[in-house]
Amino acid sequence: MAQTPAFIFNVPETPEDQGQEPSPYDESEVHHSFHQLIQEQSQWAAEEGLELQQRVPEADTLGASGSGHQAFLGPEGVPDYSTATLRILASMPSRTIGRSRGAILSQYYNRTVRLRRRSSRPQLRGVGRSARPSLRLYDLELDPMAFQEEEKRILLVKELQGLTVAQRDHMLRGMPLSLAEKRSLREDSWIQKGKQRGPQGRRGLFSCCSRLRYACVLALHNLGLVLLSGLQALTPWRYALKQIGGQFGSSVLSYFLFLKTLLAFNALLLLPLLAFIVGVQAAFPPAPSGSVPAFTGLELLTGGGSFSHSAMYYGYYSNATLNQPCSPPRDGGQCTPDAGGLPYNMPLAYLFTMGVAFFITCITLVYSMSHSFGESYRVGSTSGVHAITVFCSWDYKVTQKWPSRLQQDNIRTQLKELLAEWQLQQGPQSVWGRLRQVAVLGLVWLLCLGTTLGCTMAVYAFSELMIKSPVSAEREWELLALPLVVCLLNLGAPYLYRCLAALERHDSPMLEVYVAICRNLILKMVILAILCYHWLGRRVGALKDQCWENFVGQELYRLMVMDFIFMLLDTLFGELVWRLISERKLKRKGKPEFDIARNVLELIYGQTLTWLGVLFAPLLPAMQIVKLLFLFYVKKTSLVANCRAPRRPWLASHMSTVFISLLCFPSFLGAAIFLCYAIWQVKPSSICGPFRTLNTMYEAGKVWVRHLEKAGPKVSWLPWIHRYLVENTFPIYLVSAVLLAVIYLNIQVVKGQRKVICLLREQISNEGEDKIFLINKLHSVYERKERSRVGRAHEAETPPTLLADEQDAR
User: Which ranges does the record mark as transmembrane (predicted)?
Assistant: First the structure.
């Protein structure tokens, strides 16, 4: 059995290294020394005529060598290298590291030797030729499987004992071994170290302290892992999302992930409103302006009645100064306000809290969009992704039956999506096919835009009719007519678009979803634009002596409630009833597919209503949170029971980015423009709300600044901030430019990553060619040496008389 020579790597120590602990990161010298050692051994082997293969005196070796310097080609065009060359290739680090535990132990044993830096060992260069380990009669065998694992383990334990605690932990943490083997190595190093230090008195005490400290650190680490796993278990809908992704694919999963994102946005918007507006006003309730009507139950649909006198709407909040400090006089009279104090100005708090909440939402949206863009459009090599999914997707930590089944479904669905995406790569169509497809697309788009225009005109005509015929308080239920018409149009038009989309016959399901999203988005945004004009352009003038802010808040409340009711009805009749009809009457086995485009646009539409109405109904985000929570479980139950996976599976790698982008630009930007116009241009009502005595809502900031200028020099910096950062338009443009620059820079970073990835691919390809070149050179060198060896052996075996006869014959 071939024995592997033990080489001692000598790394010269510098004077600065004396007295310092070795760092586990300084490995460049080891690599340099190893490279030097290989070069020296190669030169000496060439001088002494050392062989790379063990001498086997058989006749078959005479024909093993080739006649050329190039490798022979096998039956399939693969180079047919010799046995020694194949052994060398098999012992390359890229083919041995991670293959066995012995290779890992051997590798990290050498690293611990480097960390110890034992200067007592002699250098290889200073040892005589006779005392050096010889390569003669040995294979150039670098395979770590030839080492004895137990010997290497004992040596590794001894080397670990000579390291410090931090270096030992770092070394064990970096080993690609199982946790049980790492724990065994750590315990062996501690036990033997304790045995060595036990009889030494005070050093044994230090070992106990170190062991106690290590136990405390390990206990805290385990506690942190338990808390982290508990937090992950508390993640909302964690297992439900895994189940949806495994059964229905990433396209359907993207809808539920988007719903979860909207839930987080609404929670982030609701927190400052509860803390600085609703909570403060609830702690200091205003005096009732009149009798509060009794609760009848109709308020849940209309939003009026007793809800109009609650913290739900804008008109409930007072324009007084809350928590106003005062100093009572000595004569027992009423207290007078302290001129130097800073009371809680409710109009200012209302305006600034709305602005800060929207600014935080904007920052969060931009960050989410840029992060999602960077994650979705990150370029990686698509070659071999199927093999990676098959062989590298399984999580071996999963041991229970249900998670294993869920992981199997997830991997199977991923493979279906990858194969479907690969099959979509078809050849170019003919000219006639392209012309026909363009004509069909143009016709379908004209019909869809005509439908959108008709719906818009219907909403506008009905809104004008509602203005001309006002509704009395006794007939409050008639206010549901406009929301009912809007929801009917929003429900019926997408089904018409879906029927027209069947004529297009898109090759890509993803393109079909994007087109459907675009058409539904145009419809809903145009209807919302008509409604915004109806509220701020027409209703403000018609409701001069009333609280028009409450009316707008109630309209948005009714739209949200009716939209939620129609979503439930669509889930019931569009999915459940259709499944029952198709299975029992039509005798079809297939269930309907989940309409991703229509459901996603319903979420965006509902979120837009929330942002439009938050100024007039501060508790509208709370309603949206309840709606989203209830909607998740309804949609999940209907999806599992009534829907099936997409007939043509497709990989929704960019869907989350598209959803966030649509939520940011058409939805949030439109709501921000609407609210800015209401704050800066529209006159508030004179009978309700915190801005009842002002010409515009924005004047609340100016009044506050004038009050601060009289308060004293202690707060003189606040008027300066308002004057130069709020009233001045330059900071607003600057913040907008910074946000756009962040998005642009993130896009450029992704493009730069693409270029770097392309360069790295090219470099990997070139390195592969270099390796092939070096292997061919190695093969040719081995063949020359083999021919020379065979020639010398032939000369040695031939008698001198035969050699003389051959020379005479020549």
Answer: 212-234, 255-284, 348-368, 438-460, 480-501, 513-536, 556-578, 599-619, 657-680, 730-747
